[in-house]
Write a structure and sequence with these properties.
By secondary structure, the chain is mostly helical. The protein is built from 20 helices and two strands.
Length: about 475
Amino acid sequence: MYITIILAIPALLSLGSIGVRSRKTFGIVNACGYLAVLASSVMLFKETISSGCIKACNGFICIDGLGAFFIFVISVVAFAAALYSIGYINKDVSAGVISERKARMYYLLFNLFCLSMIVVPSLNSLGMLWVAIEMTTLISAFLVGFYNTKKSVEAAWKYIIICSVGIIFALLGTILFYYALSISGAAKSLNWSDMISAAGRMDRNILKVAFIFIIVGYGTKAGLAPMHTWLPDAYSQAVSPSALLSGVLLKISIYAILRFGIIVVKCVGFQYFGNLMILLGVISLVISCGFILVQKDLKRLLAYSSIEHIGIIAIGFGLGTTLGMAGALFHIFNHAVAKSSIFLGSSNVVRNYDKHNMNDIRGVIEVMPFTGIMILLGVFALTGFPPFSIFVSEIMIVIAAFLKGSYFVAGILLITLSIIFGSFIYYFGKMLFDKGPKDMQKYGEPVSGKLALLFLSVPLCASGVLLPIFKKDLIWILQGLFQR
């Protein structure tokens, strides 16, 4: 029942956006729709905990705890983005930046994008999962190039080309997984539920090669270095309310990697999966750290921060301990909320100052008091400052690395996190607290934008404190997935 509501609402809103007459009314209806999606996702997660895997449509839809968790994360950010969109799109139309028709197109793309991402963790077939992830690429490309400027169109093409090359590797990996299953004597199927049950009989060598294709293919979409090159351009040009791009799109590909990784672990053993995840995680941390140190563009800075956090998540899963993987799951949620919050706040700044260069942005707290304070909270949260939730998930992964004896990995984590923390404090300290331009008027921030940022600030501040309540649920998700 709940999954029907979760899938039906974005589909109906997509249809409704085509013939909408009152843009302002539809924006409110859109936000209310995603509030219903969020409430349903919470109930769906509870249902999977009590009932186990939920199947529908003759097994075409199959949702376990991992899938329900990702749907919940998507729903949280989707509601915040829908709320923020009301004031943002209205202001764009009033300023003549976009037309009424363009505003309707935005809502159509927004809802199709949300629908395609929710579909990914709902599917049983790994082949259809590939199709759904490709759909997220195609739809989000229109959001990257939404304003039809030279830079945004160029970024959209770069995004499509690089991610499409990556997704071809993922398709080859999927085909090899199917081949390994077919020669094992099991029923020929692309359903992950069937592959898991037959994983012990599948050819180990084929799966090893197949998983390399998978991790390179979906890793490109996830923003794992060195396949990350599309990300900074896409972040800097995407329409601002599409915080879903920065908050959850990358995590969808991590979900796909985990689905295939579970099969590999049950056949080959954990070490192969873990070593690849840690390797790409460390590379992502080091490369993102280097680019953050020399960055000048605000949104590109946030893009490299996402590469850093995807690296942390990969390391958490790669460590293979309950503490490390629970920390990685918790970090997926924490980063989605923190990055969405600071992305929306920074979008307000870029719009008001009409600049991306951080050297030209000064006095944000003086000019935009509410946004400035929320960005300050977001900076401390995103860089893992206690007691914010990201600190808790990061420290879980660092402790897991030490307990496992992976001292090199733990050292890399601590060094890069310290450097990135210092860099963010330096960059944002100057933007927020330096004296602003004399001719700059105070910015009137839309109520819907304030509500979106306040909504995101609640889990940002509280989820770390409430971790003991959710700890059993995180461990329950992991049970049965990576048993070795």
